Amino acid sequence: MTSLRLRAIRLISTTAFIALGAACAHHSANRVDPSLRGAEAINRQLQGSGTNAPKLDHLIPARDSQGSLPKLFEWTAVPGADSYSLGIWNEVDMLVWRHDGVTTTSFRPTDLELAPGTYFWTISALKDGEEIAASGLSAFVVRPPNP
């Protein structure tokens, strides 16, 4: 009987923990988090912010471009956005650089240093700190300098 009670308590605790986790995830669903990757990022990209979500596209560097370190990042404007957040990840899905609070549709990073390799960049459009649109991933390749 004691074993059965302990199992019931564990089951109730687990259910409460899962419910609490779901409530927390739902509450923060519209908060910008450019570090969100993997299944959650794919899910967000597939679902968007709703059926009428504004479109956010990469312009520079062009998708799958190859060359030296990008000196400029540029994207399409999102109506109603008051700022943008830009994130760059490496091939092993680690955030390597991020810049928040960009108020234009382009940005020239002065502190970005990337070794040769493949990288992915994303943009989030924000209004009052809430994400209203998110781009998909766009790859670019940094080549080693010519000798």
- CATH domain class name of the largest domain: Mainly Beta
The proportion of residues forming helix, as a percent range, comes to 10-25%
Radius of gyration: 20 Å
Which shape, going by the Cα principal axes?
elongated
Estimate what percentage of residues fall within beta strands. Answer: 25-35%
CATH topology of the largest domain: Immunoglobulin-like
Order of helices and strands: HHEEEEEEEEE
In terms of quaternary structure, the protein is single chain
Unreliable residue runs: 2-32, 42-50
Number of domains: 2
CATH superfamily of the largest domain: Immunoglobulins
Instruction: Please state the second-level CATH architecture of the largest domain.
Output: Sandwich
Distance between the termini: 76 Å
* Number of continuous helical runs: 2
Describe this structure in words.
With 147 residues, this protein is of the alpha+beta class. It folds into two domains: 1-30; 33-142, Immunoglobulin-like (Sandwich). The chain contains two helices and nine strands; from the N terminus they run ααβββββββββ. A hairpin with a 2-residue loop joins β7 (117-127) and β8 (130-134).
